[in-house]
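Usage

Read records sequentially. Each one opens with the input sequence:
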Amino acid sequence: MTFPTIGMIGYGGIGRVHGMAYRSLPFHYGLPADAVRIGGVATTRAETAQAAAAELGCAFWTADYQELLARPEIEAVDICVPNHMHAEIVEAAAAAGKHIYCEKPLAMNVAEAQRMAAAAACAGVKTQMTFNFRFYPAVLRARQLVEEGFLGRLFSFRGRYYRSSYIDPNKPISWRQQKAIAGGGTLFDIGSHILDMLYYVVGEFGAVQATLDTLIKERPTGSGASERVAVDVDDIALLTLRTKDGVPGVVDASRMGTGLTNDIGFELFGEKGAIRFSGLDPAWLEVYDVRDADKPTGGMRGFRKIETVNRYAGQKAPDWSMAPDFVRTHAECQYQFLKAVAEDKPTHPTLADGLHIQAVMAAAERSSAEGRWVEIGEVLR
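and closes with the structure output:
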């Protein structure tokens, strides 16, 4: 099995995480050291591109991503740039016949996302979104349990993603807090992750009612600066949703979650059982089985923790009993993409999945602005 040679486009904080994850794959799966090949890197400045190439161990670097796309040895691109550049690069990569691995969220808006998904489909290239959290073994196991009918009829769901990254009003504004660059705020940045996790486990969303708020209206332009500029994206997103099948649920996302560094998780409630997952304790999935509670003695009444730990099919290292971590979920997301390309099999999640999440977020924005329920299909027309 020969993996495609990768070209990295963008190498900021998340780009470095992607590079780290790629380098770990041979160790995880007992592959030759050169099985995963990074053939080049493009950033917006020559000096950062050269430094990135030194870290990644690749010979080619450039300040023009088109030069990277023009290289015949580059078969797939990993796009790690700010959101406002996704559409241009995805469409160019599709036109160049490159397979596409793209950071979330897919686009700035639904129209862009539709063009991007259509361009990739027309070009016949494989695509995958970096919704890495769905690759925790516990989340994979939750989906399996749902598909096997463990819950029976699903009554409702809850999802959350809380961080405390912007509680300081004097923290300088970043590109993630500027609509012209990010497209949206908390909803786009971390809300997209929990929405995808639930989408993966419970299915497509059908409608949403939302409240989006900006809690700190202005921020300094830089460290120690007296000048302040307006924040024009949301700090917190509170969503009530229904799946396409009519199951109700709620999703909260906030970058103002005081005391919470990276708290993502969900709960599912059904007629036969319940499931809950916390990213703060990712080695386990908690389950409740009504059939136990119905036994005359009460059986094993209560939530039970089932071990999922590092159970990835075919993994050589680390030992399966070790707890998974954030970088490992990125590595698995990448591995499944590279493997699907090598074996000419379907990828997941695709740009089409990214488009669905984009539509849910657009419907949430419209709902918050207009104070009503919005059908997901309404924003796709």
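Summary fields computed downstream for this record:
- Residues 351-370 form the longest helix (20 residues).
- The two ends are 41 Å apart (CA to CA).
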